[in-house]
Amino acid sequence: MSNPSKIEAYFETEHPFKDAILTLRTIVKQTELVETFKWSAPVYTIDGKNVAGIGKFKHHFGVWFFNGSLIKDKYGRLHNAQEGKTKALRQLRYTDASEIKEDELLYYLNEAISNQKKGLEVKAAKPVKKVVLPTELTQAFSENQNLEKAFKALTPGRQKEYAEHIASAKQEKTRRSRLEKATPLILDGKGLHDKYKNC
């Protein structure tokens, strides 16, 4: 089934909110957004970028915005549909067609379009890799709590530099030597390569 026929089938399927989502569609079509079909629902794009979508569910229906967290929520109507799971996605949720206010919906749509045209997007946070500490370092922590406290106060990048520097030595003797040289720097809150960065 082609996209246009999938879209029509979505809106023509009998559903308690069938008329309500047709009303939403009519309002969305007043904007410059292009209607397409993704993830089994109508999605509205500008310059090929996802801006909004229409959804129908068992107990509600609504419009979601892909970068909705960037919209100024003038009416206080936006919901985070998946609390804690998404930083960007926001939803305008309705339980009855009488709740739809055209001027309100157009405000949110135009804000989303404007943000997209400006290139504003919520960037997904890169997962932070946990620093794997070499045995020599963890043993030193158990003997010196100040060292552990100072190490934990360092930035993740500096912690990683020290951990990798010590762990990369093949011989235990070299690892211990590196740890001894690193200890005063860690206690001073300095990074392994700080002296070179200030040159």
Instruction: Classify the oligomer.
Output: single chain
Fraction of residues in β-strands: 15-25%
- Overall shape: elongated
> In angstroms, what separates the terminal alpha carbons?
64 Å
Q: Kindly report the average pLDDT value.
A: 90
Q: Based on the structure given, which CATH architecture of the largest domain is correct?
A: Alpha-Beta Complex
CATH uppermost class of the largest domain: Alpha Beta
The major sheet is characterized as: 6 strands, antiparallel
Query: What letter string, H or E per element, gives the SSE order?
Result: HHEEEEEEHHHHHH
The tally of beta strands, per DSSP, is 6
- CATH fold name of the largest domain: Aspartate Aminotransferase, domain 1
Can you give the helix content as a percent range? Answer: 40-55%
- Backbone structural class: alpha+beta
Low-confidence stretches: none
Order of strands, widest sheet = 1-2-3-4-6-5
Number of domains: 2
Summarize it:
It contains eight helices and six strands. With 199 residues, it is of the alpha+beta class.
Question: Key terms for this structure?
Answer:
single chain, Aspartate Aminotransferase, domain 1, alpha+beta, 2 domains, 199 residues, 8 helices
